[in-house]
Prior knowledge:
Layout: E1 2-7, H1 14-25, E2 36-41, E3 46-48, E4 57-59, H2 65-69, E5 72-75, H3 86-97, E6 101-104, H4 109-115, E7 122-123, H5 130-136, E8 141-142, E9 148-150, E10 154-157, H6 162-175, H7 177-186, H8 198-201, H9 214-221, H10 230-236, H11 241-251, H12 256-274, H13 279-285, H14 291-302, H15 306-313
Helix pairs in contact: 1-6, 3-4, 6-7, 12-15, 13-14
Amino acid sequence: MHVVAVLALDGVVPFDLSVPLQVFGSAMDDGGRPRYETRVCGLGPSVRTSPVFGGIGLDVPWGLEALAEADTVLVPGHADGLVPPPEALEALRSAAARGARIASICVGAFILAASGLLDGRRATTHWAYARELARLHPSVEVDDSVLFTDNGRLLTSAGVAAGIDLCLHLVRRDHGASVAAMVARRIVMPLQRDGGQAQYIRHPDPGPPDVGLQPTLAWLEARLHLPLTLADIAGHASTSVRTLNRRFRAQVGTTPLQWLLRARLHRAQQLLESTTLPVDRVAAACGFGSSATLRAHFTRHVGTSPQSYRQAFRTGS
């Protein structure tokens, strides 16, 4: 069984600690058996959360040896400017060296950065602490605009609830979209949220409710196969292209064409997982025009080819 170890040190943020336990603990097979074994590990038999988060005392059943046995290691955020103990950093480096997948939640990225594992890699953390992460660790490429980053074996997530997005992403990587969707429904969470942290960093007036983008988003979802332009989208929204871009930035956290690209890629993933349509048919159904265009976007944004993705996530494979 896939073992997930969650590192709990004094000052751990309780929500961050509970996220992987909830998400991975909710992933069941068709017989109702758990797909993951979760282990909370640390330096000693107990930890205490920061007083800011209730000062709760928690039992820690596993020591750092759990990191040496884990397939996935989660590093939740820790408050109070935690300086990670050397033995915890060494355990993380050792886990990475033997091939474990390691991910951080929120300001847990500071612990990964202190271990040196993020050097030369793209990473994120809570937007309010991104500048500090970049200052303390200039060799890390900090991106405060995304919900999470995926470098294959090393992943980071943005503030608080983005840890849920990250863990659902890992379940999807492991077991495909249908299992991840089941977990998302169980925890009452969308499988994939649109936009990134930008929608939380900026707080412009989105305008009165009657100019919300939901009708336009639904219109786009129904026409992903068509060669839509900015002018087409602006025409449906009865606005100028400039105003359309501003509203998308304010309400969705991205541009209309970026949102459209993500929606098309998501539709392509669904078709690759659930149908046997040839790749060129999938490309046409999702508005990419040609299989070459689909492959280029898919490889850039998903990190693999459509064919390899289908082999990994095809329903029933």
